[in-house]
């Protein structure tokens, strides 16, 4: 009788076990490293420019190289993980990070640094669809939303660690210390590579390829000898789509939503995060106010993500993304209107934006991993990651030009407009997946 009861328990409903904790570390470590390795260039770029005598063209190319790489890696990793599986590609990112970090140490030209950073971006692009899909396909539904949302917090933690470690290394005063700064991610990459050894393939992916015996072996190893394929919720066979058919199906609307909301949530964030001191200076906030304000805004980005992670299973996904875009958009609108106001009001509005956008930030990994079936899940995440980074690159490039040509007030209005596009797309297209099994969340028939 007890065995029959176990057979009826879905793996989406099992308690969190040690394997789930280990998988969270394995995938979460990738986001720490992503935040670290993408942010470390900001610490070292000035020193690289001095020693390698980079002109403005190569300085800009080095700064943008990783974002270009993410665009390539997101598409490539998303497609390959659907064809070859999650586990094989789980090691691609760490290997690229280690080899290219070592390569950067010996770089002697802007072109060499650009190539290594481009390849690093490809590795980061692989991480989004591969690590996210592998984690979500093992997690119980009760913990899926909060665990995926927490990955965004880990990214910011990695970014903060990069600034701390990078500045400590540069404090030596050696002009070539930047080489050790860019080498430092290799140590984290090596740790991540070792931790990921022994990771099994996703049983859901194995079943989608007709490898039922392999899937059953994984299930028994992870969940116990009494579990089998019967404990995986059945996927509607009509939803087993080829990648070429995705836009012709009902999933085309979901792909549009993921692309729009992800892109609209990162363009203003990357612009504000990268140019906070410059933006604050344009808002007449200088001196200690600017220094403390930049730190406070960065902290509030993290706080916003933490709060959203705590609320995601209470509010639900749809309500959270709508409120996040609404209130953060209003904050940006007010920043444009009160661009000539005093420092305290500006910092309050800036901080409000950083806090409220946390909901949309954490959903960047939750939504695309939940609302697509196994066959196209990693591909959808890859597209979202790729297109959002195009938006991030455009936003980062546009801010200094916009500040100079049309001023801070109009720049904030544009950022608000982008945020409200995200709001409209969420109102029209955002589904609710709270408390659903992965199969039900991904189903078009509810």
Automatic annotation (TrEMBL):
It is found in: Membrane. It comes from the Bacteria. CDD domains: MFS_SV2_like. SUPFAM superfamilies: MFS general substrate transporter. Residues 23-434 form the Major facilitator superfamily (MFS) profile domain. Keywords: Membrane, Transmembrane, Transmembrane helix. Its main location: membrane. The keyword rRNA processing does not apply. Gene3D superfamilies: MFS general substrate transporter like domains. The chain crosses the membrane at residues 31-50, 62-82, 89-107, 113-136, 148-171, 177-199, 256-277, 289-312, 319-338, 344-367, 379-399, 411-430. It is a multi-pass membrane protein. PROSITE patterns: MFS, SUGAR_TRANSPORT_2. Coiled coil: none annotated. Belongs to the major facilitator superfamily. Sugar transporter (TC 2.A.1.1) family. This is MFS transporter. It comes from Ignatzschineria rhizosphaerae.
């Amino acid at each position: 009788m007890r065995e029959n009861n176990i057979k009826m328990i879905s793996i989406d409903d099992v308690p969190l076990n040690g394997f789930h904790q280990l998988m969270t570390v394995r995938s979460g470590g990738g986001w720490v490293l992503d935040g670290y390795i993408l942010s470390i260039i900001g610490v070292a770029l000035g020193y690289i420019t001095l020693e390698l005598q980079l002109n403005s063209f190569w300085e800009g190319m080095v700064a943008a190289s990783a974002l270009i790489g993410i665009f390539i890696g997101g598409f490539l990793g998303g497609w390959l993980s659907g064809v070859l599986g999650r586990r094989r590609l789980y090691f691609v990112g760490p290997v690229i990070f280690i080899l290219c970090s070592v390569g950067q140490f010996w770089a002697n030209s802007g072109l060499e640094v650009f190539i290594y950073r481009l390849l690093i971006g490809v590795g980061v692009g692989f991480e989004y669809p591969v690590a996210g899909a592998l984690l979500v396909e093992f997690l119980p539904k009760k913990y899926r939303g909060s665990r995926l949302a927490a990955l965004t917090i880990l990214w910011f933690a990695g970014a903060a660690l990069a600034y701390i470690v990078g500045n400590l290394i540069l404090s030596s005063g050696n002009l070539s210390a930047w080489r050790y700064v860019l080498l430092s991610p290799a140590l984290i990459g090596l740790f991540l590579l070792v931790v990921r050894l022994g990771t099994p393939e996703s049983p859901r992916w194995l079943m989608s390829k007709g490898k039922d015996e392999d899937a059953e072996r994984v299930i028994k190893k992870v969940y116990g000898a009494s579990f089998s394929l019967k404990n995986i919720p059945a996927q509607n066979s009509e939803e087993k789509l080829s990648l070429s058919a995705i836009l012709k199906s009902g999933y085309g609307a979901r792909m549009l939503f993921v692309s729009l909301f992800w892109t609209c949530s990162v363009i203003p964030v990357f612009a504000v995060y990268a140019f906070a001191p410059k933006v604050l200076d344009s808002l007449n906030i200088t001196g200690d106010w600017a220094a403390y304000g930049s730190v406070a805004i960065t902290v509030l980005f993290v706080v916003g993500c933490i709060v959203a992670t705590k609320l995601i299973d209470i509010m639900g996904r749809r309500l959270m993304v709508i409120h996040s875009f609404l209130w953060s958009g209003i904050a940006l609108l007010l920043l444009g209107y009160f661009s000539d106001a005093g420092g305290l009001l500006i910092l309050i509005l800036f901080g409000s934006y950083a806090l409220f956008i946390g909901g949309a930030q954490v959903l960047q990994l939750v939504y695309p991993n939940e609302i697509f079936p196994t066959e196209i899940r990693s591909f959808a995440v890859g597209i979202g990651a790729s297109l959002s980074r195009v938006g991030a690159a455009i936003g980062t490039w546009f801010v200094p030009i916009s500040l100079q040509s049309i001023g801070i007030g109009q720049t904030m209005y544009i950022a608000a407009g982008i945020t409200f596009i995200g709001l409209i797309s969420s109102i029209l297209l955002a589904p609710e997946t709270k408390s659903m099994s992965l199969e039900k969340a991904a189903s078009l028939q509810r």
